[in-house]
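This entry is listed below:
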Amino acid sequence: MAPWAKIKFFWKTMLGSEGSSLTASSALSGFDVGNIHNMMETGMWMASEAAGPHYIIYDAGVGGGEGADYLAVSGHNLFSSGAMVSLQYSSDGQAYTDALTPFTPSSDRSFVREFLNPGPFRYWRLVIENSSVQPCLGICIWGLSSELDYATSSFDPHEQEIKAAVNLSQGGYLAGAHASYTERSISLKFEDADPSLYERVSEWWESSGMKNIFVMWEPAGHPEEVFLMRPEPRFSNPLKYGGARRDISIDLTGRKE
């Protein structure tokens, strides 16, 4: 069994950065490629046809360049459509190099693929090939990951609650139950956190706020367990030891896929 690794959040993305553009080789009407990086689950990009290859191209703009070490995707059909996915970078928009070589996801659930950051490049593109139907992406981002630390208190990464309307008879007997969805929850605590960890957590909170993020609770042993989650609205991390340390608490919820 591999040693545990530090918890990671994936939210920093070059997509939508100032002066940049994002284009797709095709898009069905009403399914614009700009939907993929707003971190919402109500919109998506869908290609206008199955035949590919399909390209989603990021351009940082003249004089610009961005680095990345991950690709994160949620709300897709890449597995069921048999698609091959790769992520590439380029300095001129003509000759591209693979950051991630072509692969097919193991399911249609959320996933993150990590890779070695090649450095800042002006152009990045996602390539989708061999899809049997029109490929679609609900959320798709790439950028730089945020490594936190080891949690100092135990937590259940598989905690969940069924959201349901339950009807009971006057005698207390179950008369009916209608499940709407299952909610996933994770509560993380980092006690005696140093300023560098607090800076990373604060940067995430100030930049991302209540938006969804991708969470990998144990990257070494369970890299396939990636959850799309959002934080609770309260941000409170008390100082201690005269301000030298903090106790950090992060409560996350999301919909179980």
